[in-house]
Design brief:
With about 100 residues, the protein is of the alpha+beta class. Helices cover about 45% and strands about 20% of the residues. Strands 1-2-3-4 form a four-stranded mixed β-sheet. Strand 2 and strand 3 form a beta hairpin. Helix 1 packs parallel to helix 3. The longest helix has 17 residues. The chain is globular, with a radius of gyration of 13 Å.
C-alpha cells in the first residue's frame, strides 16, 4: 500500500464529515506533518502519514516533539484502518460533547 493511497482515503473520510484537510508545507524548513485537519470548535488534528510499518524520520520526530510540547497532538498513521479508527474516535468524542 502506498502512502498516497492512505492519505487519499483518510482525507476523504475526514472531509466527508465536515473537516477541512490541508496539506502543510513549511517554507525553508523540513519536518512538517503531512495533513492538518480543521474541525468545528477550533479542533485541530495533525497527521503524519507514512508507508505501512515506516515511522517518522528523525527530523519529523523532532518537529512532532515541538508541537507536542506546546499542547498539540500529532498522530502517525500508516494504514487506512488506523486513519479510519482515529476518525471514528474523534467523531465519538464530538458526539459526547
Amino acid at each position: 500500500m502506498l502512502e498516497g493511497n492512505v492519505v487519499d482515503k483518510v482525507t476523504k473520510r475526514f472531509e466527508s464529515t465536515g473537516w477541512i484537510g490541508r496539506k502543510m508545507v513549511y517554507q525553508n524548513r523540513r519536518g512538517s506533518a503531512d495533513k492538518w485537519f480543521f474541525g468545528y470548535g477550533a479542533r485541530l488534528v495533525i497527521i503524519e502519514f507514512k508507508r505501512p510499518k515506516k515511522g517518522a524520520t528523525l527530523q519529523q520526530s523532532r518537529e512532532h516533539a515541538r508541537l507536542i510540547e506546546r499542547g498539540f497532538r500529532v498522530y502517525v498513521v500508516d494504514t487506512i484502518e488506523k486513519g479510519y479508527a482515529l476518525h471514528a474516535r474523534l467523531e465519538e468524542i464530538e458526539a459526547l460533547a
